[in-house]
Design a protein that fits this description.
The complex is a heterodimer of chains A (about 325) and B (about 400). By secondary structure, chain A is mostly helical. In chain A, about 70% of the residues lie in helices and about 0% in strands. Chain B is built from 15 helices and ten strands. Classes of the chains: A mainly alpha (about 325), B alpha+beta (about 400). At the A-B interface, helix 6, helix 9 and helix 12 of A face strand 1, helix 4, helix 5, helix 7 and helix 14 of B.
Chain lengths: ~325, ~400
C-alpha cells in the first residue's frame, strides 16, 4: 500500500506533475528574462508565466465550428501527458538510478515525438487556413529533425555500449552514468541534438510552425482559454524535459548526493542558456532552409559522429 | 479589386494581423507554400483628412497633416507648406531652410531605424528589433530638444519654422551625432554581416528596375531597384542643394537591397545633419506671411518612404478650397503584384514589410452596395464630386 502511495506521490507531486510544471513555468520565466536582458529590456516578473496560465484558465475556450471537436480538445492533453511522462521518467533516472523501473532511451525518443504529433493533430482539427499552413510546416519540420536527432542518440548508445558492454546500452540509467560529450563524436552529436531540440521547442530560428508575423501563431491560432493554457504548460514542461534529456544523454546526467544534484542543475541551466542564446541571435529561417539544414548539415554531421563513435569502439579510443 | 476563387486556399494577412500594426488586408492565394496571387485591400480607417483640411485655416493645416502619419510627421507638413509658399511666393529665411533640413533628416534616421527594427521582428529576430529601437531613442531625444516633441513635431509654419535651434544646443547635437553614428555603424555591421539574415533577405521579393518604373514606386523601394530618384536631389527644397551628400541606390531590387539603401541613407542623413548644423546661418527662423492669394501650388518632399506630394488651391480666402495629399505608400503598395507573386509565404511577409508601408496615410474610400456588389463611389466618382464641390466654391467666391 505504502508503495502505491509513494509512487502516486512520485507521479503527482515530486518530481512528477506539480514539481515539473512548477519548474517548467520557472524555466519559461528564465527564457523570457534572459531574452529580455539580451535585448536591453527589463523583462517580466518571476511569476508572470503563472499569471499567464491563471488568466488563460479564466478565459472563454472557443472551439471552431468547422473543426473536429474531440480531436481539437484532446490533443493538448495527449501532448501534455506525454511530455510529463518523459520528465517523470528522467527525474526517476536522475534521482533513483537503481530503481526497479528501467526506462530505456527508445521510450524516451518516442515520448519526445508525441508533443509535435499532438500539435499537428490539434491544429489540423481546427479548420483554419493559417493552422493548416502551420500543420504542414510542423510536419515537414518533424520529418526534417527526427533523422539527425535519432542519429545523435545512436552515438550515445554506441558510446554507452563501448563503456558498459552490450546489453545495458539502451538503459537510461546506464546512459546517465557517462558523458559522451567529452569525445569528438559525442560533441558533434550533442550540437546536432541541441539544434533539433531547438526545433522541437519551437524556438527561433525554427519557430516556423508558429511564425507569429507570418501565420499569426499558426498551429495554435484557434486555441484559446484552458486549451491554450494546456499548450503553454506543455511548452513549459518541454523546457524542462528536453534539456534534461540532453543532460542525461550527453552530459553525464545527475551524479549522486547534493553535489551531483547541484552539478546536474548547473548542466541543465547551461543547456537552457545555450538554447536561449541561439533563440536570440538568429532570425527565423524558411521551412525549406530548415529542412536542408537538418538533412544536409545536421544529418551529415550526425552520420560522421556515428562513424567516429563506431571507430572509437572498434579501436577502443575513448576520445573519438 | 479582384474576387479570389473559393477553391484555392487563401491565407489572409489582415485586417488585423501581427505583421502590421495598422489595418490592411493582403489575401494571399497559396499553392503549398508558394503564393500564386495577392489581393490588396486598404482603407479600413478612412479619416477624411483632405475634407477636414478644407475646413481649416491655412496655418492650422500643417498640424493636421503632420497627423496623417506619425512617422512622416515632418514630411507631410513640409510638402504642404511648400505648396502654400508657392502660391504666396514666400521668400524663406535661410535659417528656416536649414532647420527644416535638420528636422527632416532626423526624421529619416528615426524612421529607417524603426523600419530596421520592425523588419527584424518580422523575420523573428527580436533582438534586432529591440536594439534598433533602443539606438533610435537618442534621435527622438534630439528631435524633442529641437521641436518639443518626439513625434508629431508641429514645427512647420507657412513661411518658416515654429521652433528655432538654440545655439546652446549645437555642441551637444554634434557630440550626440557622433555617438549615434557609432551605434549605427555597429548595428549596420551586425545586420549586414549576419549570414542567416543574408539567407533570409537576399534574392527575396525582387522588384526589377522595369517593374519599379512600371509601378512608379518611390523612395527606398525605387532606389533599392536601381532607380535613383530622390526629390531632395531632383527637385531640391530646403537646404539640400547647398550640402554635400549623395543619392543611395542599389541595383539588386531584393529585400536586402532595400535594407541596404535605408541603412546607407541613415549614414548619409547623419552627414547632412552634421553639415547643416555647422553651416546653420544666423537670422530669423520665420517670416510673417499675411495673405494667401488665389492660385494653386504643389509641394514635394522626400519622406522616409518616398515622395510625398501635396496640392493646394486657394481662392484668396483663409482656407484651402482644395487640398490633395498623396503619400508614398499609395504607389509603393501596388508593386507587391510584381514582387510577391511566385514567392514563398515566409518571404512574402518580409517583402510586404520591405516597402515600409504605412497604411493610415494611404487610405482611400470606395462605397459598395453590398447586395449588388455595385460600386457606388469609386475613386473617379469621388474625384468628380470633389471637383464639382470645387466648382461650387468657386462660383460662391
Amino acid at each position: 500500500m505504502s508503495e502505491v502511495v509513494q509512487n502516486l506521490f512520485w507521479i503527482l507531486v515530486f518530481p512528477g506533475f506539480l514539481f515539473t510544471v512548477g519548474l517548467g513555468l520557472l524555466a519559461s520565466w528564465i527564457v523570457r528574462k534572459v531574452s529580455a536582458l539580451v535585448q536591453h529590456r527589463v523583462g517580466p516578473p518571476m511569476l508572470q508565466p503563472v499569471y499567464d496560465v491563471i488568466k488563460l484558465l479564466g478565459k472563454e475556450t472557443l472551439i471552431p465550428e468547422a473543426g473536429q471537436r474531440a480531436t481539437f480538445m484532446f490533443s493538448p492533453l495527449i501532448g501534455f501527458s506525454a511530455v510529463l511522462l518523459l520528465s517523470t521518467m528522467l527525474w526517476r533516472i536522475s534521482f533513483v538510478p537503481a530503481s526497479p523501473f528501467v526506462g530505456d532511451i527508445i521510450v524516451a525518443i518516442y515520448l519526445m515525438v508525441i508533443p509535435s504529433l499532438a500539435l499537428i493533430l490539434g491544429s489540423s482539427a481546427s479548420a483554419s487556413p493559417q493552422a493548416s499552413m502551420g500543420t504542414a510546416r510542423e510536419m515537414k519540420l518533424v520529418v526534417a529533425y527526427e533523422l539527425p536527432l535519432v542519429l545523435a542518440f545512436l552515438v550515445v548508445i554506441i558510446k554507452t555500449a563501448g563503456a558498459v558492454g552490450d546489453g545495458r546500452q539502451l538503459s537510461l540509467a546506464a546512459i546517465a552514468e557517462h558523458a559522451p560529450v567529452l569525445s569528438i563524436s559525442g560533441m558533434i552529436a550533442f550540437l546536432s541534438a541541441l539544434l533539433c531540440v531547438q526545433a522541437k521547442l519551437g524556438f527561433v530560428p525554427f519557430d516556423i510552425a508558429e511564425a507569429e508575423t507570418e501565420l499569426a501563431s499558426g498551429v495554435l491560432i484557434e486555441y484559446s482559454g484552458a486549451l491554450l493554457a494546456m499548450w503553454t504548460l506543455m511548452q513549459g514542461v518541454m523546457l524542462v524535459a528536453l534539456p534534461l534529456f540532453l543532460v542525461v544523454a550527453f552530459l553525464g546526467g545527475f551524479g549522486s548526493g547534493a553535489w551531483g544534484i547541484l552539478a546536474g542543475a548547473g548542466k541543465y541551466v547551461l543547456v537552457l542558456v545555450l538554447i536561449i542564446l541561439i533563440k536570440n541571435t538568429n532570425p527565423r529561417v524558411r521551412i525549406d532552409q530548415a529542412m536542408r539544414f537538418f538533412w544536409f548539415w545536421c544529418g551529415t554531421a550526425a552520420v560522421v559522429a556515428v562513424a567516429l563513435a563506431i571507430l572509437g569502439n572498434l579501436f577502443s579510443i575513448g576520445w573519438l | 479589386m479582384k474576387t479570389v476563387k473559393i477553391n484555392q486556399p487563401v491565407i489572409p494577412v489582415g485586417p488585423l494581423h501581427p505583421l502590421q500594426e495598422e489595418m490592411e488586408c493582403f489575401r494571399l492565394t497559396v499553392d503549398g507554400e508558394t503564393v500564386t496571387d495577392i489581393d490588396m485591400r486598404i482603407s479600413y480607417n478612412h479619416r477624411g483628412i483632405e475634407g477636414i483640411s478644407q475646413s481649416l485655416q491655412f496655418d492650422q493645416v500643417p498640424l493636421l497633416v503632420s497627423r496623417i502619419c506619425g512617422i512622416c510627421s515632418a514630411s507631410h507638413p513640409l510638402a504642404y507648406v511648400q505648396a502654400v509658399e508657392e502660391i504666396a511666393d514666400v521668400k524663406l529665411p535661410d535659417r528656416a531652410r536649414y532647420v527644416r533640413t535638420i528636422v527632416a533628416e532626423l526624421e529619416r534616421i528615426h524612421s529607417h531605424v524603426l523600419w530596421l527594427g520592425l523588419a527584424g521582428h518580422f523575420i523573428g529576430y527580436d533582438t534586432v528589433f529591440m536594439w534598433a529601437w533602443k539606438y533610435r531613442e537618442p534621435v527622438l531625444d534630439m528631435l524633442e530638444a529641437i521641436t518639443g516633441n518626439r513625434n508629431n513635431y508641429g514645427n512647420l509654419l507657412i513661411g518658416g519654422c515654429r521652433e528655432d535651434i538654440s545655439d546652446d544646443l549645437i555642441p551637444k547635437m554634434l557630440t550626440d551625432l557622433d555617438e549615434i553614428e557609432k551605434k549605427m555603424d555597429m548595428l549596420i555591421k551586425a545586420v549586414t554581416d549576419d549570414p542567416v539574415i543574408h539567407a533570409r533577405l537576399k534574392g527575396v521579393g525582387v522588384l526589377t528596375k522595369e517593374d519599379a518604373v512600371r509601378f512608379a514606386v518611390t523612395g527606398p523601394t525605387a532606389r533599392g531597384s536601381g532607380v535613383d530618384i530622390d526629390v531632395r536631389h531632383d527637385d531640391a527644397y530646403a537646404a539640400y542643394d547647398e550640402l554635400d551628400w549623395s543619392v543611395c541606390a542599389v541595383p539588386e531590387g531584393d529585400v536586402f537591397a532595400k535594407a541596404v539603401v535605408r541603412l546607407l541613407e541613415v549614414l548619409e542623413a547623419i552627414k547632412i545633419i552634421r553639415q547643416a548644423v555647422k553651416k546653420l546661418p544666423k537670422g530669423p527662423v520665420k517670416t510673417n506671411v499675411k495673405d494667401i492669394p488665389p492660385g494653386e501650388g504643389t509641394g514635394r518632399a522626400e519622406a522616409p518612404r518616398g515622395e510625398t506630394f501635396h496640392y493646394v488651391r486657394s481662392d484668396g480666402g483663409n482656407r484651402p478650397v482644395r487640398h490633395k495629399a498623396r503619400a508614398p505608400s499609395y504607389v509603393n503598395v501596388p508593386s507587391f503584384k510584381a514582387s510577391c507573386i511566385g514567392q514563398k509565404l515566409a518571404d512574402v511577409t518580409i517583402t510586404l514589410a520591405a516597402v515600409d508601408p504605412c497604411y493610415s496615410c494611404t487610405e482611400r474610400l470606395a462605397v459598395v452596395d453590398k447586395r449588388t456588389d455595385e460600386v457606388l463611389y469609386d475613386y473617379n466618382m469621388l474625384l468628380k464630386l470633389s471637383r464639382e464641390k470645387t466648382e461650387e466654391i468657386r462660383r460662391h467666391a
